Structure formats: C-alpha cells, structure tokens
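Lab meeting, item 3. Inverse folding demo.
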C-alpha cells in the first residue's frame, strides 16, 4: 500500500505562456504511482499543453515539475517578476530599513532560484545518467568479484557492462515518460516502416544489437494486439485503431514508468475506442504503468480514471476522486460539463436539463480572487472565501 501512495509526478504552479496567451496558468497536481489521473475540459483549455510541458516538448514559463523525486522542469518567469517588483518598490517606494532588507533578501533568493532552475534545465539528464552508470558499476564490481577466476564469465560480464554503460550514458530521465498522441495518422512518419517507428527510441538510446531490437519489436507488437508480419508495413496500410496500437507500441517499447495519453481515442470509432481503452488498462496492470489520461469524453474518463482534474481556460478548477467528482460536483463549470453527458435513455434525455456555465454571472472575484482549496477530503476546488463558505454550507460542514 505504501508503494501505491508514492507520488511519481508532482507539478507545482505550472505556467506555460505563448507571448500574451496564458495556455496554462498556475496549475498544480500530483500523480501517484500506478494510478490513472484524468485531465478533462473543453477544447483549448490547456490539457494537451500541460501534457506536452510535462514531457518537455515545451520549456515551461514558470513552476516546477518533479518526476521520481528529481526536478525535470523549472521555469524562471515568476522569479524574474518577483525581482522586478522588489526593485521597483526599492526605487519608488522609499521603504524603511527593515522593509529594504526584506526586499533585498527577496531579490537575492530569487536570483538563486533562477540559477537553480537553469542548472536543472542543463544538468538533470546528466545527473540521471551518472546515477545509472554508478549503479551499473557497483553491480559489475560485485558480479566480477563473484566470478573471480572464471575468465569466460568475466569476459561475458565485461561485454555486458560495456553495452549497458553505453546505453546508460545516453539515458534521459524524461524518456521514462512517454506520450501517446491524439492523431494516430499525423503522429506516425509515413516514410518509416512499423519496425523503424517502434525501434527508433531504442536506437537513439544506443542499443545496437539488431537481433535484440527485432525481438523487442515483435514482442511489443504482439503485446498490443498486432502480429510480427505488420513490422514491415507502412502506416497507411493500417486502420485508425491499428495505427493507435502502433503509437502505443512505440511508447511502451521504451519501458516507461508513466504514459501521457493525449486523447488517444477521440479520433476512433466507438467500438475501437473500447478496444484501445481496454488495451491501456491491460498494459497498466501488466507493466505497472502510471497514466495521465487527457480527454474531453467524461464517460470514458469516469470508466478509466482513479482521480480527475477539471481544467477551464488554463486553470485547474476542481480535482477529486473519480466517483466523488461525479457524485458531488462542486464548481459550476464541472456541473456544466457533467450536465452535457448524453445517456442512452430517451426518457432521461427528454428531461435532462443542460446547465450553462457563465463565469461572469457565477463568480464575483472583484474583491478577492480564487485559490485552490480542499472542501471535502481529497476534493479540491478553485474558489474564494465567500464561495468556500457557500460550498461548505451545501455539504453541512
């Protein structure tokens, strides 16, 4: 049970800006080892940008991302903004000696944070690779001592050690996170065979044994429901569901600890959606994967996810266990999303009332802005003091 509660990924105050567009703004959450964390919201709310920022396709603007306890992403804008504000107050505010010392400390601390963030960006992969080499060397020394006097065994150990070290030196921590992309057609190179697509990551890592690579490709193909004869074909020779299986195979061949599934079933037929979801569920159980599942189909998310985060215009507005969120939606936007889920019951559909979310009418943030708060155990909502009091009253807290 302790292992299940281990936090694998931690996102702190993530901001991803593209010039003046705040695609993701101050988003925080964590994902525990072995769970499926669903991220939902309407198109354009920042779900995919969050996933791409975590896997370092984008350099994040502000915030921190930790994976397996090591910081893999760090932004600097918030530190520069804090320094700028402190210098502005020093120049124009005419503070007393106590406040001046406080402002100077803020400037100094944020300069250190900027240097730390830059160090993380430049060296996190080197630190990870160095730790792998050290573990391999320690194990090799133990095995060598155990095989002392057996020249054939020692030669075999040395050959394996050299090959493993070559791979370890090229390893990056972020490759332990792999991504399944939304469009199974656009995400596959049409000029590459399935074998080349799946094995590309292994080759980049430094693996040169062709027989090993081919066996890995065949094994992974069969694991995702394809056959080894498919390895020599090109993407255009497959259906949409088969292409998505190839995308899944490409990600799990790297033996990741975590998958980011970016709307992996939205481009597929309903029957194929069920097959892909069941495949991901099987792989999760077989390989012990942790999954960040990005989608806008709430019915699929409820079936597949352990916890769900709801995003709106770049902000996280609600986060709770899957059953809890559907049983007690608190934020008006979440209630609006849930009211839009169609059910295969014509009598219910005739009576279903669609809730329309209007942030201007539903919130008054003129005096106090919202923050992320725990209303029920494990159930977080973006709200201010007045809204928190109203929500607590609703639940008799």
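The presenter then showed the designed sequence:
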């Amino acid at each position: 049970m302790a292992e299940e509660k281990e936090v694998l990924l931690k996102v702190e105050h993530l901001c991803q800006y593209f010039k003046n567009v705040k695609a993701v703004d101050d988003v925080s959450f964590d994902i525990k080892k072995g769970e499926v964390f669903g991220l939902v919201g309407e198109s354009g709310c920042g779900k995919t940008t969050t996933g791409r920022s975590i896997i370092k396709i984008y350099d994040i603007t502000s915030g921190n991302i930790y994976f397996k306890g090591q910081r893999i992403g760090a932004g600097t804008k918030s530190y520069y903004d804090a320094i700028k504000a402190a210098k502005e107050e020093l120049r124009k505010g005419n503070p007393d000696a106590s406040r001046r010392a406080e402002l100077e400390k803020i400037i100094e601390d944020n300069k250190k944070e900027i240097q730390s963030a830059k160090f993380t960006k430049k060296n996190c992969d080197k630190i990870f690779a160095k730790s792998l080499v050290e573990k391999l060397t320690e194990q090799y020394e133990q095995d060598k001592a155990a095989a002392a006097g057996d020249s054939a065994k020692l030669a075999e150990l040395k050959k394996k050690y050299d090959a493993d070290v070559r791979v370890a030196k090229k390893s990056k921590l972020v490759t332990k996170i792999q991504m399944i992309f939304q469009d199974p057609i656009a995400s596959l190179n049409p000029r590459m065979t399935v074998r080349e697509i799946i094995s590309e990551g292994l080759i980049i890592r430094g693996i040169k044994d062709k027989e090993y690579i081919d066996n890995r490709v065949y094994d992974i193909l069969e694991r995702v429901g394809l056959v080894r004869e498919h390895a020599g074909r090109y993407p255009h020779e497959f259906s949409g569901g088969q292409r998505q299986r190839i995308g899944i195979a490409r990600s799990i061949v790297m033996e990741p600890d975590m998958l980011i599934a970016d709307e992996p079933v939205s481009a597929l037929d309903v029957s194929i959606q069920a097959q892909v979801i069941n495949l991901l569920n099987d792989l999760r159980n077989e390989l012990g994967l942790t999954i960040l599942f990005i989608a806008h189909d709430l019915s699929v998310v409820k079936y597949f996810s352990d916890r769900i985060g709801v995003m709106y215009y770049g902000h996280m507005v609600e986060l709770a266990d899957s059953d809890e969120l559907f049983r007690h939606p608190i934020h008006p936007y979440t209630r609006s999303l849930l009211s839009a889920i169609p059910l295969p019951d014509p009598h219910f559909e005739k009576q279903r009332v669609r809730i329309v979310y209007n942030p201007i009418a539903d919130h008054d943030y003129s005096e106090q802005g919202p923050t992320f708060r725990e209303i029920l155990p494990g159930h977080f909502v973006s709200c201010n003091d007045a809204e928190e009091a109203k929500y607590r009253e609703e639940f008799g807290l």
